[in-house]
Design goal:
This protein is α/β, with parallel strands linked by helices. It has helices spanning 14-24, 43-51, 67-74, 108-117, 148-156, and strands at residues 3-7, 29-32, 56-59, 80-82, 86-90, 93-98, 124-128, 139-140, 143-144, 161-163, 174-177, 180-183, 190-193. β1, α1 (14-24) and β2 form a beta-alpha-beta unit.
Length: 194
């Protein structure tokens, strides 16, 4: 078994980062599903702090960061990998990354990209900023507001784990889609095993 730390929606919180720092000591690697800043305020400082955790970090932009800015800044760190629109194989797990958004019911661009770039037999972890439809992770009031494209992907690819965020109300919650366990790890993060 391999342990990793997942977090999302940090939004520059020093208090939550203390939790991440402590939990990272038990992790083999780290996954950030975006919105680690508040509209990119002090983005370089936050990336420095995340990189200083001295673990391999797979990171996405959320709706508070620009993809091109995060991609460019990742080039400054040997342990940070920008994973938007990528499939990264790490210890026999195919980590599929899709950042930004959080406001669409469907994502045609993701669907076309995933069809072209992912195999059905891969051991898949989907990391997306937007929540997965029809789960405890996408409830706002009494309505499901998540992304149906991500849900379909998790089901059709027999994914083993899904990480998302965006809806702060659902931080710390988990659910299941088919056989896939899905999580909103929140800003303080959670340790998971695969």
């Amino acid at each position: 078994m391999m342990k990793f730390l997942a977090f999302v929606d940090l939004h520059g919180s020093g208090t939550a980062f203390k939790d991440i720092d402590e939990k990272s000591k038990d992790a083999n690697f780290i996954v950030c599903a975006g919105d680690f800043t508040l509209f990119e305020n002090n983005i370089k400082t936050w990336m420095d702090r995340i990189a200083a955790l001295k673990k391999k970090v797979f990171i996405l932009h959320g709706n508070h960061e620009n993809a091109s800015v995060v991609r460019k800044l990742c080039e400054n760190y040997s342990n940070m990998v920008f994973m938007h629109k990528k499939v990264i194989v790490h210890d026999n797990i195919s980590i599929v990354g899709w950042g930004g958004g959080g406001f669409n019911e469907r994502d045609g661009e993701f669907e076309a990209w995933a069809e072209k770039n992912t195999g059905k037999d891969d051991k898949i972890m989907l990391v997306a900023h937007a929540p997965f439809f029809n789960t405890a992770l996408d409830m706002i009031g009494k309505e499901h507001m998540g992304n149906k494209s991500f849900r379909k992907f998790l089901l059709t690819h027999d994914a083993i784990i899904g990480i998302c965020g965006h809806f702060h109300e659902n931080a710390g919650k988990s659910d299941v889609i088919g056989k896939c366990k899905v999580y909103n790890p929140g800003p303080s993060g959670i340790i998971l095993e695969i």
